[in-house]
Amino acid sequence: MGMRAYRADLHVHTLLSACAEVEMIPPLIVAEALYKGLDVIAITDHNATDNALAVRAAAYGTDLTVLLGMELQTREEVDLLCIFADPATLAVWQGLVDGWIPPLENDPERFGPQYIVDAEGNFVDEELRLLQGPTTVGLDEAARRVRELGGLAIPAHIDRTSNGLMAMLGLWPPELEADAAEVSANLRPSQARQQFRYLPPSLPLISSSDAHWLAWIGTAMTIFELSAPPTLQELRRALQGIGGRRVYVP
Q: Are 33 and 131 in contact (CB under 8 A)?
């Protein structure tokens, strides 16, 4: 079977993230992703997953695959992309994270509101807990739990000074097991390997937009060459280089 290239942006926020613009509602996210020629996106709000299924529903009947995820901030203040295949596993993961979120209330005036919406973008609820901050779980344990649930664990924007693994820790923890690492749009993967000598040589590097507003969707992406439609398992096989599959940043 021949390979096909799929364009993926695995780091997209909705208006559930306090720092995201109010325009980040499901139908507009889907429309923008399709306009940019993307085949796959992952919804990764801060410490929360409530809008992920709404975006998937908004993409129903289109050619866009929506993966379900979260951008978890660990105890070390390192951001970790946690991406799952199905709603049941996502719910299990959210239940774990709920136990790690400190009992603090969000300040909408200072940080912005955290809105839960439906597939059409209509208001459903407002998340009152403070999601924009570190949880109590460590990076190694969080990545291990994600992988035990069958998800992808990918430290986010490792090159950034804010919440990036290399800036926060200074090196790649030898005990950390991750499926890939994300570099920001400011750095090519080849540059990241030169700059961060502690990165494991076999660690796949991807790039994503970390979009908090519509225009930013797809401004950084990763190409997955797959032999089947872009399921989570197919993406994992590509990250592992199985059966001729591969991953690269254009």
A: no
Q: For residue 143, what are the CA distances in angstroms to 42, 175, 180, 219? A: 17, 10, 11, 26
246 sits in which H/E element: strand 246-248
Could you tell me which of 183, 133, 132, 129 has the C-alpha nearest to residue 154?
183
Residue type, 196: F
Question: What domains are defined for the chain?
Answer: 4-248 (3.20.20.140)
pTM > 0.85: yes or no: yes
Query: Side chain identity at 55, as an amino acid letter?
Result: V
- Mention every residue, 6+ apart, whose C-beta is less than 8 A from residue 68: 42, 43, 49, 52, 53, 56, 83, 84, 85, 86, 87, 90
C-beta pairs of 66-70 under 8 Å, 24+ apart in sequence: 66/30, 66/40, 66/41, 66/42, 67/10, 67/40, 67/41, 67/42, 67/43, 67/232, 67/235, 68/42, 68/43, 69/10, 69/42, 69/43, 69/44, 69/151, 70/44, 70/45, 70/46, 70/94, 70/97
42 closest CA partner among 19, 13, 66 = 66
pLDDT digits (tens, 9 = 90+) for 62-121: 999 999 999 999 999 999 999 999 999 999 999 999 999 999 999 999 999 999 999 999
Q: How many residues does the chain have?
A: 250
